[in-house]
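From the pipeline queue, job 12 of 40. The input is one protein chain; the requested action is below.

Action: predict structure.
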Amino acid sequence: MLNLAIRGHDLSEVTSLESLAEKTQAQGIQTLQLALGLSFPALLSEGRNINPGLGQLVKGTLQRKNIQVGILSCYINLIHPDRTLREAALSKFESYLRHARYFGAAMVATETGNVFPEIRYTTKNFTEAAFEEMVQGIERLTAVGEQQQMLVGIEPGLNHPLHSLDRTAQLLQRVDSAYLGIILDPTNLITSETYRSQAALVQEAFDRFGDKIIAVHLKDFQVREDQIIPVDLGTGVIDYPAICQVIAKEKPGTFVVLEETKDQAIGNAVSLIQQVLKKERESCNE
């Protein structure tokens, strides 16, 4: 049993909340990871713009089609080198935490950023100094999360200071908060040399800190010229059957977001995963 979700901005030609709800429902999905600024570029969605009325409007409109916001996205650069921009980003996330309950969300999500203004791979992210700055930012956000009783979802990735399972375990030791959770995207943690061990990576993550995993991103990919290229689920090389089996065993009902699977490919992905889960149930009943 999994709670399958999609990112709202993986649906094209969404022009209103109503069309977002209709297109989501048409794909057999009931849960969204919603990035307001990406689904609705014309909508002002900075921290000062978020308010209870907007949250209730979004929640109510989606509910009419039996759709809910599971994850509210607020992806920021926690360690932006420009201190003014960093402060603005942290303040924005804090505003999202204060208002997420009006949207009906269970958490607010972000990655950990980059030592450069843009997000890109650099070993400078892997220094102790970058890690310490990241910890300071997450401590600040989880303090607000605790006040608001709202989960802070942090997503590791190779392009960020939180770049490995070891660093993730270290973070969880440093920031001991019931409101800090991990959004695991295994595709963000592998390279063209390590991708074949992706299912083992997912199992290891659950073995080491499964109690803190609050959502999983399922992102299929192909390997081209040593690059990991995201594709629709079922058209790449991700071992989604093995990964889904691990998730269903370790954390039944958890959010599994079909990231980068778009439009009509979503329905096909849902069918593929349902087949995997059905076979797993049948084997358990034998």
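Job complete. Strands lie at 3-7, 31-34, 68-73, 107-111, 151-155, 180-184, 213-217, 221-224, 227-230, 255-257.
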